[in-house]
Amino acid sequence: MEWFPILAFAFKFLVLGTGMFFAIKWHYDQGKKGRHTERRAVLRTAVKIAVIFVALVLVLVYGTWLLATKLGMDLNLP
Predict the structure, then answer these.
(1) How far is it, in rounded angstroms, from Cα 46 to Cα 27?
(2) Are 50 and 38 in contact (CB under 8 A)?
């Protein structure tokens, strides 16, 4: 069962990455339908959202790591 966290994390990353890709693509296509000046705004917003998402994920992982170490959990890989 030691392989399960690695597989689950990879699966979650793949699912979230695919969802983000299609969300950005949809917004990009919507911007393409309208004026050409809106396309840059849509892409800029998509990049901002992606950066915020990555930053929040990193904060969540760091906070989880801090909480686990304070509780005395062993986080060393075998």
Answers:
(1) 8
(2) no
Q: Which residues of 19-45 are buried (b: 16+ CB within 10 A; e: fewer)?
A: eeeeebeebeeebeeeeeeebeebeee
> Going by C-beta distance under 8 Å and a sequence separation of 6 or more, which residues neighbour residue 78?
2
Full-model pTM: 0.48
**Comparing 7-16, 17-26, 27-36, 68-77, which segment has the lowest mean pLDDT?**
27-36
The predicted-structure confidence for 31-75, as pLDDT tens digits, reads as follows 677 666 667 888 899 999 999 999 999 999 999 999 998 998 887
